Prior knowledge:
Blueprint: H1 3-6, E1 37-38, E2 41-49, E3 53-60, E4 66-72, E5 78-81, E6 84-87, H2 93-112, E7 121-127, E8 130-136, E9 140-142, H3 143-149, H4 156-175, E10 188-191, E11 196-198, H5 203-212, H6 239-255, H7 285-294, H8 306-313, H9 324-329, H10 362-382
Antiparallel strand pairs: 1-2, 2-3, 3-4, 4-8, 5-6, 7-8, 9-10, 10-11
Helix pairs in contact: 2-5, 4-6, 6-7, 7-8
Amino acid sequence: MSQEAASEAGLSVPTPSDHDSSPPVAGAGDVLPAGSVVGRYRITGLIGRGGFGIVYRAESLANGATVAIKEFFPAAIAGRVRGRLVPRKPELQAALAKGIEGFTREATLLAELSHPALVSVIETWADAGTAYLAMEFYDGVTLRRIREALTAPPSEAQLRAWIEPVMGAVLELHARRIIHRDISPDNILICRDGRSVLLDLGAARQVLGGMTQALTMVLKPGYAPIEQYVDDGSMSQGRWTDVYGLAGTLFFAATGQAPVTATSRLLRDAQPDLATLPAAKHLSPAFCSGVMRGLAVRAIERPKAVPELKAALGWGALPGGADPRAVESRRATAPAPSGASLGDRRPMSAPIGATRQKAWPSWVIIVSVLGVAALLGAVWLAR
């Protein structure tokens, strides 16, 4: 995994083109030196660092296996002092503790899931005032880096090869009533063996965003739908939230350009139609239409889940011939992982703008029928 691209392995490492205001990135002095021992691993080098963590290459002390170690390191609110992570101000202690809690729960959640396109977490632990996780070492680059290096737009077949496995991973999360909330080209790794891997969730980041800074500093403009910018409960988040992230990622992969930020589309929607762009000349009308439907500002106008998005794209069956109805039906029966409680198991209620009819209780119906019958009987007797 190269440092340039693998810095996104479980991280958000913004570039100037990604954000206008990004959180501070961990400094060179914050990085643990090679040879440091964390848990049951020895650090052998740096993979990357971002606003919310540092990722190291390491080897197992038990068998020498190469792994990636992610250290929770929110540089905006904490720094390393004598080997321990401490808040930059006393009043940030609660935010740091909540962030560590979210990071640990997210890691535990991922460790309990198993899907070839989901990052594989080996273990997680707390130490030195922060938390760590050990995960499989992936030799590859992010989708963003791959697309930026292309000199010509990719074919629809290539887009499908990159994104369809990720859709399967998202479908697995949704079957456990988990919303990813952070799908973007930065969070998809394309391995040298051709595999696509969806990296970390957005749980710890969302907690810190809610406690210490504006949400615009923790959300990825262009890939976060409007409901993620609202934290007062007036807009529900659900499967349709991840549909927007998938559609935004497809738009970027097809064109090399990020979609227009959802908040700026409220007053005047300047999001270009994919079908009108030069990069779409070789793409099918169904694909272009499906991407734009997935990017609808109003959740009620989007495909409500991954199977509907795939159908809108004209992509047919799920990978491996899985029946989308069977996978989706597991949502009601599959137990949620124990680590999913940090906002990632919110009830998947109807999108904003949708209405739901209430079913009358059976006793109400029976009493109503008997009441009508009694009234008719009284009228008959009075005659």
